[in-house]
Amino acid sequence: MYSLRDVLEQSQKNRVAIGHFNVADWVLLKAVLASGRELKVPVVVGASEGEREFIGVRQLAVLVRSLREEWDCPIFLNADHTHSLAKAVEAAEAGFDAIVFDLSALPFEQNVRQTKEAVETLKTINPAILVEGEIGDIGTGSEIHEEAPDLSRGLTSPAEAKQFVESTGIDILAPAVGNMHGMLKSMVHGQTRKRLDIQRIAEIKNAAQVPLTLHGGSGTDDEDLRKAIAAGINIIHINTELRVAWRRGLEEGLAKRPDEVVPYKILPFAVESVKKAASSRLNLFNGEK
């Protein structure tokens, strides 16, 4: 069985991106796994601190590990947006494959110092774990927003990226390149799309020389995503799109079976809706038109 590092290195060689999808329940996890298996591509499932609290840190780690072993498929687990060393250690000890140690809200030097400490601590627990650091401002919350925040002043510079990587020892960098967490209502209805600073991505990749993650990928223009992958993005996070698909699928199931009270007869509608959303993104990330 390949490690996440192996899969990441191979994706860079193939000039494709790994799809990262957040999960908060069995419906989402089942749908993402089914999508990856059907398309025969690796996937990363992520869980934020809130999602981990809801599911259970060790419970989620055991579940993903059992799915990987039973189905012999490349599905990996990431502790998304972890804001404290204690929470990061908890995920590492549970057996997560990767951790996003996110102190991007702090001043740069403080972010560097504490991220370096986290890398050293987490590698002591598991030398194979991948640690991702984040700099810049991409907003907060994988939700539906009324208005887009002004994130133009929080974009990552190539010089900052290089300094951050060299000073911390992180394995993966998450920069701010026009991406934003969540989606606007207009994006949910397909009226507008997020746009990325492709040139900035290329310059950061050249300066940092590590794999790059694009957070907040939901609602992003398809062609921009293709160009971003070509410019050096290696992992793309999708969360809000799956949450929207989850809700729409659940609503469809309840509408079609208004008198049904058996969960396993209603929830397959949500599974199928999420699977379609995940498959669409995985096809794009892996070079399908």
Description:
This protein has 289 residues and is α/β, with parallel strands linked by helices. The protein contains 13 helices and ten strands. The strands form two sheets. It has an eight-stranded parallel β-sheet with strand order 7-5-4-3-2-1-10-9, with helices on both faces. Helix 2 (26-39) links the parallel strand 1 and strand 2. Helix 5 packs parallel to helix 6 (108-125), helix 7 packs parallel to helix 9 (198-208) and helix 9 (198-208) runs parallel beside helix 10. It is globular.
Overview features:
Class_II_FBP_aldolase, zinc ion binding, zinc, TIM Barrel, 289 residues, 13 helices, metal-binding
Radius of gyration: 18 Å
Tell me, briefly, the overall form.
globular
Helical content band: 40-55%
Please tell me the CATH architecture by its name. Alpha-Beta Barrel
Specify the CATH class. Alpha Beta
Q: Supply the CATH superfamily name.
A: Aldolase class I
Q: Please count the beta strands (DSSP E, at least 2 residues each).
A: 10
- Report the uncertain regions: none
Report the sheet-strand fraction. Answer: 5-15%
Order of helices and strands: HEHEHHEHEHEEHEEHHEHEHHH
Class per helix and strand makeup:
alpha/beta
